[in-house]
Task: structure prediction
Amino acid sequence: MAANKLLSTISILGLSVGIATAILMGLVVRNQMTFDAYLPLEDRTYLAVSPPNPKFPNQVWHDTSDYGTAYLLKDAPGVESVARLLLNNSHQLMIPGNYRNLEAHQPMMLKQGNITGFDLFYWADPNIFDVLRFPVLHGDLAHALARPDGIVLSRSVAEKYFGDDDVVGRILTLDDHPMVVRAVIRDLPTNATTFQSGIFVSGTAPFSELTPLGYSREKLFDHRGNYEIDNRTYLRLKPGANISNIESIAAAYYKPIQLETETTQIRLTPLADVNTFEPLNPGIRTRLLAAGIAGLLVLFISAVNFVNLMVARSARREREVGVRKSLGAGRQALMVQFLGEAMIAVILAVCIAMVLSEWLLPAMNAFLDTGASLNYVGDPGLTLALFLGIMALGLAVGAYPSFLLSSLKPTSVLRGWTRFAGQNIGIRNILMTFQFAILIVLAISAWVMWQQHKYAMQEALRVDADQMLIVQLDENNAPKQRPAVAYICSSAFETELRNLAGVRDVECSDRSFLSVIPITFSDSDRDHILFKIGENSISSNLLQLYGIKPLAGSLYDRTGTVINSTAVRKLGFASPQAAIGKNWISSIPNSPERRDMIRNQGPHNIITAVVPDFALTPVTKPFQATIYSQWSPEDIGGQLVHIKLDGQMIPETLTAIDHLWTATRQEGPIIRFFLNDYLQQEYLDMTRETALLAIFTSLAISLASLGLMGIAVSTAERRTKEIGIRKTMGATTAEVAALLLWQFAQPVLWANVIAWPAAWWLMRRWLSGFAYHVDLHWWVFAAASVSALIIALLTVGGQAFLTARQKPVLALRYE
Result:
């Protein structure tokens, strides 16, 4: 190393970057695959999830179940214990990232002294801690919720309200109801659990929203109208329990009361697998696999650099090997020595990589919203994996150079000629070819993903989302002196908004404008779906506010209904113009729902305009047939207020809106967000994937450039005499430089043969997950290849020119 300072530094630093990348990605994958592993007996703990009804394939899976699931499974064979949790989350209802459950619950305030808060909490069955055995700090957790006034806090929540964690027996007020802290548990691990809160309130409290557990079969029939899917049902199974049998019991129980529009099946999912359960978290396994592979590819590139540079600098040791062999050294002894040297270099690289990993881990966790940790002492499994990884990597990168050097014959070396150089160049070029193939694949993938992200956030939206602020309203925000149902969009809040400086326009809609909720038409026996269409209620000028122009008809005709292009096709109209003036309900086959809607709506179902397809939902799903009922602001029950802001004074306008919320005596905190933030949250996974791949591509380019630089230095040194002879025979500096550059360009050109088909297949698979996506253009592939070639030539060009311009006399005196 001391004799080859530059090459040793490049190889060790490059390898340390690759190791750090692999460690970080491995920690992320491990974190996501081990959610809730801190709970005892988590392998026997299951969550009852609700699959979509087969007759509604477009519906989504739910991690919640209806109130009867726990009752019917509590005595099933193989079930040890069953309990439920119900999250009270109304105050975060529509904030991006927290809008999964669209059902509103009354906000509830926690208070102790002068400290108040709207923390998330769970209503829980008294036996919940028999199923979920959280680590306890203080109190009797097993019986903490047995009484109606029982509450359990996490350590951080206890310190927030009381300033201490040993608060068992103290009073915490929940919406004017005194609750007694019966136990304190450890804080839930950050981004390593599926539980959103460490606060648990007894579900037996008189004001609890959790339905009593003691429902009989008859009451399930009687309460079919309240057949809600809103609570989580957890089960602890006995060892060897038959899961399929338990699921069959639930299916048989629900069959007599099954309605077509209800989800009446359950699936038991191990608690440890809930986070990576594909139906609940679509695409997570693919993302984790991609992250793991990308980390290994960066490690591979750095390892290739290490091997190439080790072989390159070992060329100086050919004479040493010859002398040592002639003095009796065996091949095995030489291999052990070279492997030991490689192992020392790898250990140095690992030490640097561990420092890099510790330094970058917090930033990576913040970027990816993960809870990965690097704990050598408290995690012996991780320590063992790192040790074995170091040994395997050292053997992998040291095996070929050790084998090659130890195979040299002393007589050939001492005579001054060997075949070592030719073998070295052939293997080196093969490794460089695969290295640049990976780089080109990463570059193509990063560019395509960036194009798709840009398309999804801009072109696919088809609406003007710039500077659009949305405020959520619902019955819970109604001033207490008025009935909740009287809260309409033309309230004082909405009226005063229009008078604020910095507000350009204000319109309203129901909540389904952000995520279309379909209505279903079926025949009389409810076994056949005739038609499904999304329905939105909007104020008169909302579509104009979003810059949407009609394809036919007029948006100023406010007596009827607006439909989109997909609805035109689904309803069977020949063109948008042909739909104008028609009754859209009359185009649906006969059904009870159709007759009821015609009777109740009267002239409101006449189509007065057709607009292009647009949606504020991800492009993974196709546009849905949608109708927009244009009611006047005096009639619409406003749940979302859409506020178009003036970009000149946004901070001042936001402050004024907050003051107006308080001045008009709205209940609870204001819930507002920019539409662009909402959309960013919808595409957060894609944003992270694109950024992460860009980082990997940059690392791959940097590592490949470092490797090429080192190889160029070694090659120039090895070919010094050859270059001197060529120049003596009349070769110009440009010709010699071109010869050296061509040597490095060949592996890059051959890499395209591998990279193009691989990138095309990968990106086709990735884009197939989107209903609307960009095309794969040939110029993206060509641009990535040309960029890789330019990077390679620029990296070695300087060294090639310096080598080519040396005087022949100096080259001939080299040895």
